[in-house]
Design the sequence.
């Protein structure tokens, strides 16, 4: 029992020395010690040095007349040192400023001598001042002297001897010569230490920056020590993309399963999709699931102002990756270095980006081998990438990450509402998914966050359905500006404009039905309308035409009611023109132009100065666009003229209430004749169409 107790005590015993931190020397301690020593020497006298004070002529004249000096030394004909006798210093209060202070740490002072320093401007003028003092001596001392011999003795003894001395300030001259070199050396050392510090502080297992490591890769390394917590369970939706990426991860974990069949691991996978769809999140999940070294960096990390740095960083990245194989390299926004070569407008110049791309192509699939190194990249501009980069052997797979559909939006909402405190009775996740067509995963995350902020702003304990709807409106249209002052005539114009959109869309079969209309300014829009569009995979010509007609309904209403139009239709005209151009030039939906498409899916035409069609064809395209838009405009005016009374009633309600809903339109227009078709459509959603731009935007359009 005693033995066990002894062992227990030993196990509980802690060595106090072992836990103490090691002593580390810091160079700044030397600087502090030097400053302390200089301060002590400056503010205290040690009693063994000469004490000197600067003096003016009036006081020097008194000293000379009292003959309390022992000698006068003229230094370099610049100043004079007037040494005072020690007895005079101790007895006469005139020289109290030469009395020494207490010595260092209370040591008793033991001054050898003290002197005054008199700085004269001109040596000859100083000689004349001395002669005046000598004459005063002679006049004072010869009083009562009767014999000439006595007077001659007094005159000869009344001379003030000036001892000229030439001094060279060895330390001052040396310092003036050495100091510039010392400053340069100190600056160089500090700069060197800063660069070394920048290199050692960067991540990636020694891969870092610094002036001497400028050619090193900036990739950050994630391994067992820097583990990523994101997994595939955190990625909602993207089922097809997840399947292909998970196969790569599974190959790294269980290679025998594939190699037994003769399969080889893909050398690279390119994630392609619109912004905010989860490409980087998918890469994080790969880093969290793969359990192999994961290098993460951006395409812009290769870009540098120095020639050859980008290519050097590529070489260093792959060299480090080969040492840690098997591993994964993730390059985000690869279009920063992967754009198609030969498109530089400044011909003859050295394009550093092209050199970097050439090195990347060589490393990915060149003469050497990269066994066990998988490249994962992401971009939303795959159309501008170089063809050599996209070929098999470099990026074997192109994984498209599209905007989520209804079911995927439901899954994304479930992920982002997991940590939210919301009213589960009033908030329906499926309803929210229907209200957000065209939203990316990042947009949905923003909706959930905005709903929490809106609920907190109103001091609510739970987030309710209206908070989510307000968040959707906030993200689509911007912040509501209820305090913005609008003149009554402008308010009426805006009301008729929005009523025109609502009326026309209500009467057209393929136009998206209305949810609500508001004339409260929001963001850059003075008014806005929310619709319920179908989620279509293809769109017919009649559907596009009906959408164009509803877009022009606002301007048509202004024309019919007021006899003139305003600049408020800027956004409508822009969208209509682009839609008509696409129908004529891209989709082949015009009879005169025919079944032709001038769309370049490769994206290479954006660097060119020429069009893929002749001047005559360009003129025909312009005429057909104008004809198509004018036809839609006349159709909108025809619908509004037929329903003028209902238009007026709807506009007046808007002026009065500022916000009207679908139920208000049903009371005025009745149920839509296409209601049965809409009821069979399950994927209806809430989207806002900004129909009236702010005054600033309108002024820009006019100018």
Sequence:
């Amino acid at each position: 029992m005693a033995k066990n107790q002894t062992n227990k005590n030993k196990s509980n015993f802690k060595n106090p020395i072992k836990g103490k931190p090691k002593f580390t020397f810091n160079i700044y301690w030397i600087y502090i010690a030097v400053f302390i020593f200089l301060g002590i020497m400056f503010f205290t006298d040690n009693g063994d040095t000469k004490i000197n004070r600067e003096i003016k002529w009036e006081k020097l004249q008194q000293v000379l007349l009292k003959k309390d000096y022992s000698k006068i030394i003229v230094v370099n004909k610049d100043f004079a040192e007037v040494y005072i006798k020690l007895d005079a210093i101790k007895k006469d209060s005139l020289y109290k400023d030469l009395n020494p202070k207490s010595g260092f740490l209370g040591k008793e002072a033991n001054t050898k001598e003290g002197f005054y320093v008199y700085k004269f401007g001109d040596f000859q003028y100083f000689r004349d001042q001395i002669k005046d003092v000598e004459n005063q001596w002679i006049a004072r001392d010869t009083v009562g002297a009767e014999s000439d011999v006595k007077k001659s003795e007094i005159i000869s003894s009344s001379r003030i001897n000036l001892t000229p001395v030439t001094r060279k300030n060895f330390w001052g001259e040396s310092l003036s010569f050495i100091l510039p070199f010392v400053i340069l050396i100190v600056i160089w050392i500090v700069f060197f230490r800063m660069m070394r510090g920048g290199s050692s502080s960067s991540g990636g297992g020694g891969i870092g920056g610094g002036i001497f490591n400028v050619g090193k890769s900036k990739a950050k390394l994630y391994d067992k020590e820097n583990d990523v917590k994101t997994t595939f369970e955190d990625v909602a939706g993207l089922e097809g993309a997840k399947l292909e990426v998970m196969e790569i991860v599974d190959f790294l974990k269980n290679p025998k399963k594939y190699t037994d069949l003769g399969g080889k691991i893909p050398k690279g996978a390119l994630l392609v999709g619109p912004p905010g769809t989860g490409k980087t999140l998918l890469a994080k999940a790969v880093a969290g699931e793969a359990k192999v070294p994961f290098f993460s960096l951006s395409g812009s990390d290769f870009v540098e102002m120095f020639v050859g740095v980008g290519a050097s960083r590529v070489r260093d990245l792959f060299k480090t990756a080969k040492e840690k194989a098997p591993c994964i390299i993730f390059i985000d926004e690869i279009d920063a270095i992967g754009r198609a070569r030969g498109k530089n407008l400044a011909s003859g110049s050295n394009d550093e980006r092209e050199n970097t791309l050439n090195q990347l192509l060589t490393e990915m699939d060149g003469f050497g081998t990269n066994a066990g190194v998988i490249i994962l990249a992401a971009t939303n501009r795959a159309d501008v990438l170089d063809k050599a980069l996209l070929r098999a052997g470099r990026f074997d797979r192109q994984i498209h990450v599209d905007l989520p559909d209804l079911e995927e939006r439901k899954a994304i909402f479930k992920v982002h509402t997991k940590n939210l405190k919301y009213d589960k009775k009033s908030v329906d996740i499926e309803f929210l998914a229907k209200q957000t067509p065209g939203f990316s995963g990042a947009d949905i995350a923003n909706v959930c966050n905005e709903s929490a902020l809106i609920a907190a702003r109103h001091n609510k304990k739970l987030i309710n359905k209206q908070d989510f709807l307000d968040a959707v409106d906030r993200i689509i249209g911007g912040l509501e500006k209820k305090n913005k002052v609008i003149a009554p005539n402008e308010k009426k114009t805006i009301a008729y404009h929005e009523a025109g959109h609502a009326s026309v869309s209500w009467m057209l079969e393929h136009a998206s039905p209305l949810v609500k209309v508001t004339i409260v300014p929001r963001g850059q829009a003075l008014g806005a309308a929310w619709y319920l569009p179908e989620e279509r995979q293809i769109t017919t010509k009649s559907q596009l035409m009906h959408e164009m007609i509803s877009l022009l309904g606002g301007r048509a209403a202004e024309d019919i009611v007021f006899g003139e139009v305003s600049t408020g239709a800027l956004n409508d005209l822009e969208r209509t023109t682009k839609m008509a151009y696409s129908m004529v030039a891209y989709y082949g939906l015009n009879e005169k132009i025919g079944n032709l498409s001038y769309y370049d899916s490769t994206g290479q035409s954006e660097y060119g100065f020429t069009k893929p069609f002749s001047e005559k064809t360009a003129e025909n395209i312009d005429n057909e666009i104008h004809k198509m838009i004018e036809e839609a405009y006349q159709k909108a005016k025809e619908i509004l003229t037929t329903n003028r009374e209902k238009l007026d009633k709807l506009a007046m309600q808007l002026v009065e209430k500022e916000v009207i809903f679908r139920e208000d339109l049903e009371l005025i227009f009745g149920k839509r004749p296409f209601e049965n078709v809409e009821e069979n459509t399950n994927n209806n959603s809430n989207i806002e169409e900004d129909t009236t731009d702010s005054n600033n935007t309108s002024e820009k359009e006019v100018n």
